[in-house]
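>> received
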Amino acid sequence: MPEINKQIGWQKYEDYIEKQLSCPILQHIIQNMLSINIDDDEQLEMDEDEDDETYEDEDDEKKNLSMLALNKLMPLTPQIIEDVSMLSNFDCWIGHTNFDITPKIKDILNRTPGIEILKIFSRYRFFVGIGQMFDFQNIRFDIEQELIKGEKDDK
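>> returned
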Protein backbone atom coordinates (compact mmCIF):
# COMPACT_ATOMS: atom_id res chain seq x y z
CA MET A 1 0.00 0.00 0.00
CA PRO A 2 1.45 3.41 -0.94
CA GLU A 3 2.48 5.75 1.88
CA ILE A 4 0.02 8.55 2.56
CA ASN A 5 0.61 11.94 4.09
CA LYS A 6 -1.79 11.95 7.06
CA GLN A 7 -4.14 14.92 7.12
CA ILE A 8 -7.01 16.08 9.29
CA GLY A 9 -9.64 18.48 8.03
CA TRP A 10 -11.62 20.33 10.71
CA GLN A 11 -15.26 21.37 10.60
CA LYS A 12 -17.25 23.24 13.26
CA TYR A 13 -19.97 20.98 14.60
CA GLU A 14 -22.59 23.73 14.13
CA ASP A 15 -21.71 23.83 10.42
CA TYR A 16 -21.95 20.03 10.27
CA ILE A 17 -25.45 20.05 11.79
CA GLU A 18 -26.55 22.97 9.60
CA LYS A 19 -25.29 21.16 6.49
CA GLN A 20 -27.33 18.08 7.43
CA LEU A 21 -30.47 20.13 8.07
CA SER A 22 -30.09 22.17 4.88
CA CYS A 23 -29.75 19.11 2.66
CA PRO A 24 -32.06 19.73 -0.37
CA ILE A 25 -33.55 16.25 -0.18
CA LEU A 26 -34.38 16.64 3.52
CA GLN A 27 -35.89 20.08 2.89
CA HIS A 28 -38.02 18.68 0.08
CA ILE A 29 -39.27 15.82 2.26
CA ILE A 30 -40.07 18.17 5.15
CA GLN A 31 -41.85 20.60 2.86
CA ASN A 32 -43.98 17.81 1.39
CA MET A 33 -44.76 16.42 4.83
CA LEU A 34 -45.66 19.89 6.11
CA SER A 35 -48.06 20.50 3.24
CA ILE A 36 -49.68 17.10 3.75
CA ASN A 37 -50.01 17.67 7.51
CA ILE A 38 -51.34 21.21 7.05
CA ASP A 39 -53.93 19.96 4.55
CA ASP A 40 -54.92 17.16 6.94
CA ASP A 41 -55.17 19.55 9.91
CA GLU A 42 -57.19 22.06 7.89
CA GLN A 43 -59.54 19.33 6.70
CA LEU A 44 -59.96 18.08 10.26
CA GLU A 45 -60.80 21.61 11.46
CA MET A 46 -63.27 22.09 8.62
CA ASP A 47 -64.97 18.80 9.51
CA GLU A 48 -65.22 19.85 13.16
CA ASP A 49 -66.46 23.34 12.33
CA GLU A 50 -69.61 22.72 10.29
CA ASP A 51 -70.82 26.34 10.23
CA ASP A 52 -68.12 27.52 7.76
CA GLU A 53 -66.78 30.29 9.99
CA THR A 54 -63.78 32.07 8.54
CA TYR A 55 -60.80 32.97 10.66
CA GLU A 56 -59.97 36.61 11.17
CA ASP A 57 -56.33 36.00 10.54
CA GLU A 58 -55.78 32.95 8.33
CA ASP A 59 -52.03 33.60 8.10
CA ASP A 60 -51.62 33.17 11.87
CA GLU A 61 -53.70 30.01 11.74
CA LYS A 62 -51.55 28.57 8.93
CA LYS A 63 -48.37 29.44 10.86
CA ASN A 64 -49.73 27.66 13.92
CA LEU A 65 -50.63 24.64 11.82
CA SER A 66 -47.18 24.67 10.23
CA MET A 67 -45.52 24.71 13.64
CA LEU A 68 -47.72 21.84 14.84
CA ALA A 69 -46.92 19.85 11.71
CA LEU A 70 -43.20 20.60 12.05
CA ASN A 71 -43.29 19.50 15.68
CA LYS A 72 -44.93 16.24 14.59
CA LEU A 73 -42.20 15.70 11.99
CA MET A 74 -39.20 16.83 14.00
CA PRO A 75 -39.95 16.55 17.71
CA LEU A 76 -37.33 17.42 20.29
CA THR A 77 -35.61 14.08 20.43
CA PRO A 78 -33.00 13.20 23.04
CA GLN A 79 -30.34 13.43 20.28
CA ILE A 80 -31.33 17.01 19.35
CA ILE A 81 -31.33 18.00 23.02
CA GLU A 82 -27.89 16.38 23.50
CA ASP A 83 -26.50 18.20 20.42
CA VAL A 84 -27.77 21.58 21.59
CA SER A 85 -26.41 20.93 25.08
CA MET A 86 -22.98 20.01 23.70
CA LEU A 87 -22.91 23.10 21.48
CA SER A 88 -23.65 25.36 24.43
CA ASN A 89 -21.14 23.71 26.79
CA PHE A 90 -18.19 22.82 24.55
CA ASP A 91 -16.28 24.07 21.52
CA CYS A 92 -17.37 21.23 19.20
CA TRP A 93 -15.44 20.05 16.14
CA ILE A 94 -15.53 17.21 13.63
CA GLY A 95 -12.20 15.83 12.46
CA HIS A 96 -12.16 14.33 8.95
CA THR A 97 -9.12 12.14 8.25
CA ASN A 98 -7.58 10.43 5.24
CA PHE A 99 -6.36 7.58 7.47
CA ASP A 100 -7.99 4.99 9.71
CA ILE A 101 -8.85 6.03 13.23
CA THR A 102 -7.27 3.07 14.98
CA PRO A 103 -7.42 2.23 18.69
CA LYS A 104 -3.94 3.82 18.99
CA ILE A 105 -5.20 7.08 17.45
CA LYS A 106 -8.26 6.99 19.69
CA ASP A 107 -5.92 6.66 22.69
CA ILE A 108 -3.89 9.66 21.48
CA LEU A 109 -7.08 11.71 21.23
CA ASN A 110 -8.25 10.53 24.68
CA ARG A 111 -4.93 11.56 26.24
CA THR A 112 -4.96 15.03 24.68
CA PRO A 113 -5.52 17.66 27.39
CA GLY A 114 -8.63 19.75 26.73
CA ILE A 115 -10.68 17.09 24.97
CA GLU A 116 -13.63 16.46 27.26
CA ILE A 117 -15.79 14.54 24.80
CA LEU A 118 -14.57 12.14 22.13
CA LYS A 119 -16.83 10.20 19.80
CA ILE A 120 -15.62 8.12 16.89
CA PHE A 121 -18.24 8.46 14.15
CA SER A 122 -16.64 6.27 11.53
CA ARG A 123 -13.39 4.93 10.18
CA TYR A 124 -12.36 8.43 9.03
CA ARG A 125 -14.40 10.80 11.22
CA PHE A 126 -14.42 11.78 14.89
CA PHE A 127 -16.02 14.36 17.16
CA VAL A 128 -14.27 16.33 19.91
CA GLY A 129 -15.80 18.61 22.52
CA ILE A 130 -13.17 21.02 23.83
CA GLY A 131 -13.47 22.23 27.43
CA GLN A 132 -14.14 25.90 28.06
CA MET A 133 -10.75 26.50 29.67
CA PHE A 134 -8.90 25.34 26.54
CA ASP A 135 -8.23 26.88 23.14
CA PHE A 136 -9.13 24.80 20.09
CA GLN A 137 -6.15 26.09 18.09
CA ASN A 138 -3.77 24.72 20.73
CA ILE A 139 -5.63 21.40 20.94
CA ARG A 140 -5.62 21.12 17.15
CA PHE A 141 -1.88 21.75 17.04
CA ASP A 142 -1.28 19.15 19.78
CA ILE A 143 -3.37 16.52 17.99
CA GLU A 144 -1.71 17.09 14.64
CA GLN A 145 1.79 17.09 16.14
CA GLU A 146 1.14 13.90 18.09
CA LEU A 147 -0.24 12.11 15.03
CA ILE A 148 2.68 13.22 12.87
CA LYS A 149 5.12 12.25 15.63
CA GLY A 150 3.34 8.89 15.96
CA GLU A 151 3.62 8.38 12.20
CA LYS A 152 7.39 9.04 12.28
CA ASP A 153 7.89 6.79 15.32
CA ASP A 154 6.16 3.90 13.48
CA LYS A 155 8.74 4.00 10.66
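>> Residues 71 and 118 are 30 Å apart (CA to CA).
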